[in-house]
Every structure is written in C-alpha cells, then in structure tokens.
Amino acid sequence: MLKTILEFRKGILFVRLKGELTKKTSVIFEKTVLVKMKQGGIYHIVYNLEDLNKIDRYGYNRILYSYELCKKHSGEVFICSNLNEEVASYLTKHRILKYAKFLKNELDAFKEVLI
C-alpha cells in the first residue's frame, strides 16, 4: 500500500510517501503526484521518503519522470536524506544523485530554490 501526502508551498510541491512505491502502487503515485505536476505551476518537488519501506524500478522510474517534468520548467527534484537503509541503498545504486539533490530536511528546499 502507498499513502501520499501532498503540500504545495511557495512554488514547491512537497511529497511525503508512506508504504511501498512498487509496480502495484505506482498507479497511486501517478494519479496523485504526476497528475498534480502536469496541471502546471509546479517547478520544484521535494520527496520525503522517510516512511517509504520499499521501492522498485517502477517506483524509481516514476520519480525519474517527475524529474523530467521539473526539468521542462527549469525546476529541481530534492530528496530528504533521512531514508531507510533499503530505500537509500536502492536509490544510491541507481545513481539518483544524477537527477536529484539530497537535503537534510524539507525546509532546506527553500534555501536551495530562488523564489
């Protein structure tokens, strides 16, 4: 199961994911996060994956797609660095740092983004 909590502040979409971002749950991610991004007005996104227990290539690809959407508007993707060991290992192995910057916490996004 996947639970998504979205918050939009000062041009940044904050996405908190709880549960698993896998093949089975990536549809939920698409219906909430990606649809919101496609509606417009979102240039930067911050993922808080602290409560994410598992991610697979389908979930990873959805995050990469959100990167592509941000990139079209000269935006950036950030990931809070307080990850569980399995998720951190998966993201590091798949070189997420090519596409996203790690932050200590969500509020650091305001320091990184010129608003």
Describe the protein's architecture and organization.
It is built from four helices and five strands; from the N terminus they run ββαβαβαβα. The chain has 115 residues and is an alpha/beta fold. It has one domain: Transcription Regulator spoIIAA (2-Layer Sandwich), CATH 3.30.750. The chain has a five-stranded mixed β-sheet. Strand 1 and strand 2 form a beta hairpin. Helix 1 (26-38) packs parallel to helix 2 (57-72). The model has no long low-confidence stretch (mean pLDDT 91).
* Count of runs of 4 or more consecutive helical residues: 4
Overall geometry? globular
Provide the gyration radius in Å: 13 Å
**Largest sheet composition:** 5 strands, mixed
Please give the number of β-strands.
5
Give the name of the CATH superfamily: STAS domain
Range of helix content: 25-40%
Which helices and strands, and how do they pair?
Blueprint: E1 2-9, E2 12-21, H1 26-38, E3 44-55, H2 57-72, E4 77-80, H3 85-93, E5 100-103, H4 108-112
Parallel strand pairs: 2-3, 3-4, 4-5
Antiparallel strand pairs: 1-2
Helix pairs in contact: 1-2
Keywords:
115 residues, Transcription Regulator spoIIAA
How do you describe this structure in short?
This protein has 115 residues and is of the alpha/beta class. It contains four helices and five strands; from the N terminus they run ββαβαβαβα.
